[in-house]
Amino acid sequence: QARLVESGGGLVQAGGSLRLSCVASGGMFSRYTLAWFRQAAGKEREFVISLTRNSATTHYSASAKGRFTIARDNDKKTVYLQMNDLKPEDTAVYFCAAKDSILTDQNIRLSPRDYPYWGQGTQVTVSS
Questions:
Q1: Which of 66, 92, 87, 93 is closest to 16 using CA atoms?
Q2: For 6, how many CA atoms within 13 A lie in the half-sphere containing its CB?
Q3: Strand, coil or helix: what is 113?
Q4: CA gap 1, 11 in Å, rounded
Q5: Rounded Cα gap, residues 33 and 101, in angstroms
Q6: Cα angle at 83 between 82 and 88, to 5 degrees?
Q7: How far is CA 52 from CA 1, 33, 64, in A?
Q8: Residue 89: its pLDDT value, please?
């Protein structure tokens, strides 16, 4: 159903910032829980941050807390990831993901298996 396309990745020095965007087409965007995952070379895909319906609840990974924020624009069917104070260990391919959710579901969803809709990924490289 939904198709997600990320953009905004690139090369940045440690301490810098990037803003990733993910535009969705199809599906019921306002009913999605939205998330960002990342996958470093040779590593498992890991949860970064997520946002529930109505922007009610943000869930952060330990690495994201205090540095990353997530926002959604339901009119534009876009979710953003603002990354500040980037570190070399943030280097990875970043993926946006979505799942259909009920309004009352404020639970954290850490597993990639929970999300049926995925973007193609965008590379973020942080140099030291």
A1: 87
A2: 28
A3: helix
A4: 32
A5: 6
A6: 160
A7: 19, 4, 16
A8: 97
Exposed (0-12), middle (13-18) or buried (19+): which is 71, by Cβ within 10 Å? middle
Q: How far apart are CA 128 and CA 123, in angstroms?
A: 16
pLDDT of residue 108: 87
Helix, strand, coil shares, percent, the chain, to 5: 10, 50, 40
Q: How buried is 36 (Cβ within 10 angstroms: 0-12 exposed, 13-18 middle, 19+ buried)?
A: buried
Distance of CA 97 to the CA centre of its chain: 7
pLDDT for residue 1 is more than 80: no
The predicted-structure confidence for 22-69, as pLDDT tens digits, reads as follows 999 999 999 999 999 999 999 999 999 999 999 999 999 999 999 999
Q: Which of 70, 119, 74, 126 is nearest to 98 (CA)?
A: 119
